[in-house]
């Protein structure tokens, strides 16, 4: 599977643009603000129907315009596939495959497997548990459409339960039977989410360790630790036990929506105890392990986006990545960098075909 070309209309700083790609290595080079990250994000739209960087969809429409259109021409299993993502102000975003609009975007997730490495990955370490849950969920969802549906349903019921708790508090009332209807649904929906996350972390960890060893100069003892309230209890019991607290807080304080994935080095949080370099190695290993995991499970090498590649890579790590490229670990790669010479030197050293696209 690879992206053959993309066309952009009124997408961020691109009024109208079209790019043809090499099936292996593609590099966007140009000064800061030239739009390199924007093209990578447009590619991301074709896989996930949304931006990796900006959750406010309309902000991806070019200033002063009413809509954007991103069209991607893919080759997948010997067939041409046209994916179009478009948005007009005031309307719902549309995602189409070969002219047919998806009713639910979730049906498209996993069709174009894709992994992105970006300076924003730092948020996975520095931010709260939600970013790490999103990471877990996005990897599992690419491979398991039923998981994504369970997750969507769980969050719908959770929102309803939270609204009910607020209603009770505002009206100084309480109806245990009404709440229990939601509790039972959260119990049924939460259990498979917990089990799938747990299984995923167990399957993913050895791959993560393997990539970490390949990337990191020193063999730090890194680990991923999944933490869930459901480890020792079912959702129904948890909700019963936390009822007084939930009524006081007016939201649901326990369940899989509170899970975390702890990033550790020598048994301590990497956020506090890892050096900059150790944190970078950890994140690269995490994303490359995601690549490998999705690749093994789906039987297809995901498209790999390396945003601002030298943000993460010093010379030593560059060497390791080039080694992996040479060992044919990856499929189609997109790289962005401000310096065309160093990028060209990097990709030339792989001996593989490549294309350099200058922006700005
Ligand atoms: N909705 C929009 N309409 C028009 N231009 C936009 C919009 N959103 C972002 N931009 C412009 O896109 C540019 C940023 O593009 P991008 O982040 O892709 O740059 P880059 O080439 O990756 O730069 P850097 O090397 O600094 O990361 C900025 O000039 C910004 O003003």
Automatic annotation (TrEMBL):
Any one GO biological process: SOS response
Main location: cytoplasm
Source taxonomy: Bacteria, Pseudomonadati, Bacteroidota, Flavobacteriia, Flavobacteriales
Function: The RecF protein is involved in DNA metabolism; it is required for DNA replication and normal SOS inducibility. RecF binds preferentially to single-stranded, linear DNA. It also seems to bind ATP.
Keywords associated with the record: ATP-binding, Cytoplasm, DNA damage, DNA repair, DNA replication, DNA-binding, Nucleotide-binding, SOS response
Coiled-coil positions: none
Protein name stated in the entry: DNA replication and repair protein RecF
InterPro entries: DNA-binding_RecF, DNA-binding_RecF_CS, P-loop_NTPase, RecF/RecN/SMC_N, RecF_2
UniProt-recorded Gene Ontology molecular function terms: ATP binding; single-stranded DNA binding
């Amino acid at each position: 599977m690879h992206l053959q070309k993309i066309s952009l209309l009124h997408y961020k700083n691109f009024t109208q643009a079209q790019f043809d790609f090499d099936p292996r290595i593609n590099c966007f080079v140009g000064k800061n603000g030239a739009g390199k990250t924007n093209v990578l994000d447009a590619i991301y739209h074709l896989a996930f129907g949304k931006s990796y960087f900006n959750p406010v969809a309309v902000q991806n429409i070019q200033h002063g315009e009413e809509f954007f259109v991103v069209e991607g021409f893919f080759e997948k299993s010997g067939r041409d596939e046209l994916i179009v993502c478009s948005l007009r102000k005031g309307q719902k975003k549309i995602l189409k495959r070969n002219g047919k609009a998806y009713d639910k975007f979730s049906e498209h997730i996993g069709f174009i497997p894709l992994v992105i490495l970006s300076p924003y990955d730092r948020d996975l370490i520095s931010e709260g548990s939600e970013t790490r849950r999103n990471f877990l969920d996005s990897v599992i969802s690419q491979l398991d459409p039923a998981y994504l549906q369970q997750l969507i349903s769980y969050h719908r019921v959770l929102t309803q339960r939270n609204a009910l708790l607020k209603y009770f508090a505002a009206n100084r009332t309480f109806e245990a039977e009404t709440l229990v209807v939601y509790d039972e649904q959260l119990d049924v929906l939460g259990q498979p989410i917990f089990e799938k996350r747990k299984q995923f972390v167990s399957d993913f960890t050895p791959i993560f360790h393997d990539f970490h060893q390949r990337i990191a100069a020193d063999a730090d003892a890194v680990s991923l630790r999944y933490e869930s309230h459901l480890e020792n209890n079912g959702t129904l019991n948890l909700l019963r036990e936390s009822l007084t607290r939930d009524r006081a807080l007016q939201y649901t304080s326990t369940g899989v929506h509170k899970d975390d994935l702890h990033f550790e080095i020598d048994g301590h949080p990497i956020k506090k105890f890892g050096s900059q370099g150790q944190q970078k190695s950890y994140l690269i290993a995490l994303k490359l392990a995601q690549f490998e995991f999705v690749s093994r499970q789906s039987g297809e090498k995901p498209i790999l986006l390396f945003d601002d590649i030298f943000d993460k890579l010093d010379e030593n790590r560059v060497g390791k990545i080039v080694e992996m490229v040479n060992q044919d670990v990856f499929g189609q790669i997109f790289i962005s960098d401000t310096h065309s010479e160093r990028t060209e030197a990097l990709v030339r050293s792989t001996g593989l075909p490549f294309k350099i696209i200058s922006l700005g």
